[in-house]
């Protein structure tokens, strides 16, 4: 893995010259519009980067965007990878390893997820303060590369408390409804049954989604601080569960995206 990371990072560095990103951003489903706020200097297609997995989803662009956001040099993943696409967890999290090798100091993650908490409504934002991992693989299984991180990384604070507090302050100052809660990571690609939504709420979840947790685990393994935020695109309340389509999910994500973009932009500008 180390050789692949080094080879990929070397290729990217050769293409971006002396550009050194301070922050890495992973953009979730329907949330690629943040790129419009970035003063772009360079773009690289995943398909052209050695060893870089390619997103198979038609609504994920599959590009690395290099530029400036809020006065800070950033690299944004416009399109992420998922277990349900057929990739293993090491492949899904490989880009995070590469971003760290490029020099980022903090990772910012966004996603679209379903609300489990009746107090959290469709279209609201939720900052992730902790997670529950129900995905069937862990990206740290197999041989551990000590150069990347320890065999048994601590996960007592996977999300930076200071960044959570700052983001909540930004939301309040801009009259944005923004909660904090626990994200449950599941496999997908199907949405949950009534019984599954009930179970996920019972075990402590406030939102459920099909991404984020693997990337956060790997970031913590490498000592990379993480901030993560969800756009709540649907409601998994068993008593009043209604069918939901992908088009509806993307539409809600895009409508709420400006609020998420404002929080991320101001938060990154303050680092």
Biggest beta sheet summary: 5 strands, mixed, barrel
SSE topology string:
HEEEEHEEHEHEHEH
What's the CATH topology label? Rossmann fold
Residues in helices, as a percent range = 25-40%
What is the CATH architecture assignment? Answer: 3-Layer(aba) Sandwich
How many domain units? 1
**Tally of DSSP β-strands:** 9
Task: Tell me the number of helical segments per DSSP (H or I, 4 or more residues long).
Answer: 6
CATH superfamily: Nucleoside phosphorylase domain
**Percent in strands:** 15-25%
Low-confidence stretches: none
Overall body shape: globular
Please give the alpha-carbon distance between the first and last residues: 30 Å
User: Which CATH C-level class is it?
Assistant: Alpha Beta
């Amino acid at each position: 893995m180390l050789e692949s990371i080094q080879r990929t990072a070397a290729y990217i560095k050769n293409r971006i010259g002396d550009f050194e990103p301070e922050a890495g951003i992973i953009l979730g489903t329907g949330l690629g519009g943040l790129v419009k706020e970035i003063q772009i200097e360079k773009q690289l297609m995943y398909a052209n980067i050695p060893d870089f997995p390619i997103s198979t989803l038609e609504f994920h662009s599959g590009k690395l965007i290099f530029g400036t956001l809020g006065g800070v040099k950033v690299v944004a993943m416009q399109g992420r990878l998922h277990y349900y696409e057929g990739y293993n967890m090491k492949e899904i999290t490989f880009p995070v390893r590469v971003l760290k090798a490029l020099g980022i100091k903090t990772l910012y993650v966004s996603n679209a997820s379903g609300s489990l908490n009746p107090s959290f409504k469709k279209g609201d934002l939720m900052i992730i303060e902790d997670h529950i991992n129900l995905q069937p693989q862990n990206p740290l299984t197999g041989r551990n590369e000590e150069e990347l991180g320890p065999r048994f990384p601590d996960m007592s604070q996977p999300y930076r408390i200071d960044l959570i507090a700052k983001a909540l302050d930004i939301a309040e100052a801009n009259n944005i409804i923004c909660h904090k809660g626990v994200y449950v990571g599941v496999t997908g690609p199907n949405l949950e049954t009534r019984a599954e939504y009930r179970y996920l709420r019972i075990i402590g979840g406030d939102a459920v989604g099909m991404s984020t947790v693997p990337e956060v685990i790997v970031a913590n393994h490498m000592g990379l601080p993480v901030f993560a935020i969800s756009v709540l695109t649907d409601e998994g309340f068993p008593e009043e569960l209604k069918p939901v389509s992908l088009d509806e999910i993307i539409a809600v994500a895009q409508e709420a995206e400006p609020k998420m973009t404002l929080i991320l932009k101001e938060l990154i500008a303050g680092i």
